[in-house]
Amino acid sequence: MTLGPLIVQSDHTVLLEVAHPDAEEARHALAVFAELERAPEHIHTYRVTRLGLWNARAAGHTAEEILETLNRYAKFPVPSGVASEIEETMRRYGRLTIERLVPDDRTSELVLRSDEPAVLREVTSAKKIAPLLGNRLDERTYPVEAWARGQLKQELVARGWPAEDLAGFTPGEPYEIELDEDGWQMRDYQHRAVDAFQSGGSGVVVLPCGAGKTIVGAGAMASVGAKTLILVTNAVSARQWRDELLRRTSLTEDEIGEYSGQVKEVKPVTIATYQILTSKRKGAYAHLSLLDVQDWGLIVYDEVHLLPAPVFKLTADLQARRRIGLTATLVREDGREGDVFSLIGPKRYDAAWKDIEAQGFIAPAACFEIRVELPESERLEYAIAEDQDRYRIAASASVKQTLAKRIIERHPGESVLVIGQYIDQLEAMAEALDAPLITGQTPVNEREELFQSFRSGESRILVVSKVANFSVDLPDASVAIQISGSFGSRQEEAQRLGRLLRPKAKGRTASFYTLVTRDTVDQDFAQNRQRFLAEQGYAYTIMNADEFAPGSRTAA
Questions:
Q1: Residue 150: predicted pLDDT
Q2: Which end of the chain is more exposed for a tag (fewer CB within 10 A), N or C?
Q3: Residue 275 CB contacts under 8 Å (≥ 6 apart), including other chains
Q4: Is residue 117 in some structural domain?
Q5: Domain range holding 487?
């Protein structure tokens, strides 16, 4: 009997032996319910969390399936306490429900129900929950204040009792939207994602970058058939959504409005930026009326992992509207995954990156971590710097400029993105490479022109700041060189790799390089950044900068 690659420990961590022949299968199964915490060379550490188990439960997985996975791959017996905790945690989902007092009557009063009076007594006695409820109707039912549906769900999740929201949704003003599948068809996993959303009416769809999340959004719009508000990260994203909807649906230009810093249009389908929705004037949110100006039947949250904190508060008041969140990763660096779960909805569908790659819908990618030495003069500056300045000094090491040039020389004819965090570093890099630069200060029209120049091949190299982390369609980009980033951000790492994942001609493999300054906080942050992609099955080849010296062997 072959011992498995997992060691399940009583503190709810799971160790994965990377070199084991069954490691890839086990990693794939673990990703359904566990989060990767550390990913060094030989042993990866996962943690089984309550939120991970509840998301798995909402997506249709059972405690029996999860324990069967752990038992199948475990090297030693699963601790009985862990097994019991998994069963109890998953059993908590849905034992409380939010319903209508009169089912199928959307005007009827909201109530919190449970078939277990003891559970109901426990939660309703909590100081933060009691004010959200009215006087008890019977031992199994409490009325919910009309304004408190979202906040109640947040507080119940915080107390470990996630409620299943069965209260339904206002239909919104009907508006016919049809998919125009002329010359293309929705892929099977996109159909499954739309079906999973329809079954719940709200929730999150997780798909890799380049796998067609916008098409899933369009499919959800067609299935709901009502006026739709789409919230996106920036004006460039808004225009890409508009173009994709014009290409994929029956909608015309007259039916799609943009609501951003540049344009203020409200139409049956309106695409608004998070920035405009959260902008304040005289201390008040100036554009909140957009949420009520139409009887929306669906709200689409693009890149839901980037949802600004104020939008959670706004979303708490939108629980009667159908909601779909689209993202490549549920990872949030601010730890507010629980708010996504309670306010947007649980994970309804999740496709592993490597599964979509195996089907040929996203490009294979090779990831490299290239380590450089901090020059002696910069090493002294780093040594005496305050903690808040150390990462900037290490990440902006001057030697990265020379290394980036050598990497580009190894990829003749390929389209290369150079991505970074610090504007002065990017400006120097753009000048050294004689390449155009896009930052947050670049006007939207100029950005679109530069992106189009890159898409057409007129510009082979493009230097970009974090504005290109998300919702930018650059199908021909096959090489990315990351010279600095937002500290240890896992979701940013995933988004940046995602810029390369559109399928390439002749099945070419994309190359993702991260330039890391050895023995500094730059190296420490790089290890954390790579965790999510390691969970998805991407391995980083670690190399030294001198392997790119003139005359050395080709790396990729």
A1: 92
A2: N
A3: 234, 260, 261
A4: yes
A5: 363-548
